[in-house]
Design a protein that fits this description.
This protein is α+β, with helices and mostly antiparallel strands. 32% of the residues lie in helices and 13% in strands. The strands form six sheets. Strands 1-2-13-10 form a four-stranded mixed beta sheet, sandwiched between helices. The longest helix has 20 residues. The chain is globular and about 70 Å long. The termini are far apart. Its EC number is 1.14.14.47.
Length: 415
């Protein structure tokens, strides 16, 4: 075997070899084939300082990264992920067209397909970045009366306006797609209207609810996380699952730092808001989530409720145990934000570890917070669900670990 004198290349080889051995074993390949592949990678590292994944390695790595995502409740479906290899694309317009096709095929008329599109790996001085937290996100405008739209989008809205985009000035203006290639000035692209599936919200038992004029987009396409496989980092690897209803009804529309709609919902139902002790917030929260589930199902758009998602996660745990794999999990993210004590994962212990492959947060490339971690991921989307807060995330507040630092690992499918 050729000798690697560069420390970085040696570390990359160590990560690559670990991935190749584990993935080839799961794929049923002969150990000798894995060692031959490691020798190929070693030669590539000696000559170029890096290596490239085969299409099979890339697909397995993306699926395994979902399986390893400690904060994702929807991992039962990890092996169903559709992997689109777009590593040959170079220009912003090419990337945008690939994203539009991703949206078209994954939305699938409302029958959402968990999908990831992977663009070329990052190398020194070269990386593709998608500035949006999600492909579809509503703008946020600062006004004399407060924020109009989504407060989690204020910074990205400012950047979009700086680049020349103009919004209609409504609470639900869809932001453009912003793509940056190799550190150059970013380019923006309007999302084709036919690709933006939106769901107007109504309530099955209260016709007046429709008067609130609430809506949400049908598919959470997470765009700002990086995919790490075998030491290689894909800085543009957008993916989607489907929503868990609490991501919309208990976070995006309910959080005081987001749309803050609980008072209006309470008034529509005639709830007494004179004191917190009336539990009007709890009752309004339930009704808002009832409306989200009802509306998505009425319009034929995939969604899962938090009780079903928790039951599915227990099945995932059982399957992993049968395969001899330990589940990587963070309890504070896995429990839903509504009635968590009523789900089967409430009293289960979980341990979060740094494992690879995985989806990880990366520095935001724009605004005052650039270089300080993700804008927040606020929602928890689902491929079956998503991240706990939606906004830079999936919300107006960004996720951080217990020490206040941006977390390294995140949930791609559940924000």
């Amino acid at each position: 075997m050729e000798v690697l004198k560069n420390h970085t290349a040696a570390a990359l080889l160590e990560n690559a070899a670990a991935f190749i051995r584990s993935s080839y074993s799961e794929l049923g390949k002969d150990p000798a084939e894995a060692e031959r592949r490691i020798n190929e990678i070693t030669s590539s590292l000696v000559k170029t300082g890096t290596y490239c994944h085969t299409a099979e390695e890339l697909a397995f790595g993306a699926k395994a990264a979902w399986r390893n995502s400690s904060r994702c409740i929807g991992r039962l479906f990890w092996d169903s992920l559709v992997v689109r290899d777009a590593r040959q694309l170079e220009t912003a317009s090419e990337v945008a067209e690939a994203i539009f096709e991703h949206m078209r095929t994954a939305t699938n008329g409302g029958k959402v397909k968990p999908t990831i599109t992977i663009f070329r790996q990052a190398m020194e001085g070269r990386e593709i970045r998608i500035w949006n937290h999600q492909f579809i996100r509503y703008a946020g405008y600062e006004t004399e009366d407060g924020v109009l739209g989504d407060p989690a989008s204020l910074e990205l809205t400012r950047e979009a306006l700086r680049l020349g985009w103009e919004g209609a000035g409504t609470p639900f203006d869809v932001l453009p797609l912003i793509i940056q290639i190799d550190g150059q000035e970013p380019e923006w692209f309007p999302l084709p209207e036919e690709l933006v599936l939106e769901v107007p919200l109504t309530h099955p038992d209260n016709p007046a609810f429709a008067g609130l004029g609430l809506r949400w987009y049908g598919v959470p396409f997470i765009a700002d996380m990086a995919l790490e496989i075998g030491g290689l980092r894909y800085t543009a690897a957008p993916f989607n699952g489907w929503y868990m209803e609490t991501e919309i009804g208990a976070r995006n529309l309910a959080d005081q730092s987001r749309y803050n709609k609980l008072p209006e919902v309470a008034d529509v139902f005639g709830l007494d808001r004179s004191s917190p002790a009336t539990l009007w917030k709890d009752r309004a929260l339930v009704e808002l989530n009832v409306a989200v589930l009802h509306s998505f199902k009425r319009h034929g758009v995939s969604i899962v409720d938090h009780h079903t998602a928790a039951q599915q996660f227990v099945r995932f745990e059982e399957r992993e145990a049968a395969e001899g794999r330990e589940v990587n999990g963070r309890w504070t993210w896995l429990i839903p934000p509504l009635s968590p004590a009523a789900t089967p994962i409430w009293d289960r212990p979980y341990q979060e570890r740094e494992v690879s492959p995985n989806y990880v947060y990366q520095d935001r490339p724009y605004g005052p917070g650039s270089g300080e971690g993700s804008e927040g991921a606020g929602d928890r989307t689902s491929a079956g669900a998503s991240r706990k807060i939606e906004g830079a995330d999936p919300v107006g507040t960004s996720h951080s670990d217990d020490e206040g630092r941006p977390p390294k690992q995140g949930c791609p499918f559940h924000f």
